[in-house]
Amino acid sequence: MTKVQRTTTRYSDCFKLQVVEEIEKNGLGIEECRRKYGIAGGDTIQKWLRKYGKHHLLNKIVRVETRDEIDELKRLRAENEALKKAYAELALHHKCSEMVIEVADELFDMDLKKKYEQELSLYFKKKKQ
Q1: Tens digits of residue pLDDT in 72-129
Q2: How many CB atoms lie within 10 A of CB 11?
Q3: Which of 54, 68, 52, 62 is nearest to 17 (CA)?
Q4: What is the pTM of this model?
Q5: 3-state secondary structure 73-93
Q6: C-alpha to C-alpha distance for 54 and 24, rounded to whole angstroms
Q7: What are the sequence ranges of the domains in the chain?
Q8: Can you tell me the distance from the alpha carbon of 42 to that of 45, in angstroms, rounded to the nearest whole number?
């Protein structure tokens, strides 16, 4: 089994700019440019276009934030974290309460949840009258 030896070719910045300019101004395709200049790498010219081309600026999003906006964002993120923790704590408390009711149901052989709902219903009926 023979190994194919790769050769690394380094191109000057001037040459790279010339190739990029030819693609952008003259409308020459990447493959045509590769063949014309004898560039072996398939991704080489695309990298040059991203680095030196005019269109590389279009993909960047620049966001300008004031100090107040940054502070507000930090405050909101901290508040969000606190709310997530509080929700987790309440969900755990609710789950524990449900388990206590289930154990009490088994222990006393009755449906406490149903009994509570009935009492609550009677309470509201009396309150309406």
Answers
A1: 999 999 999 999 999 999 999 999 999 998 898 888 888 877 777 777 677 778 877 7
A2: 13
A3: 52
A4: 0.42
A5: HHHHHHHHHHHHHHHHHHHHH
A6: 8
A7: 13-56, 67-128
A8: 7
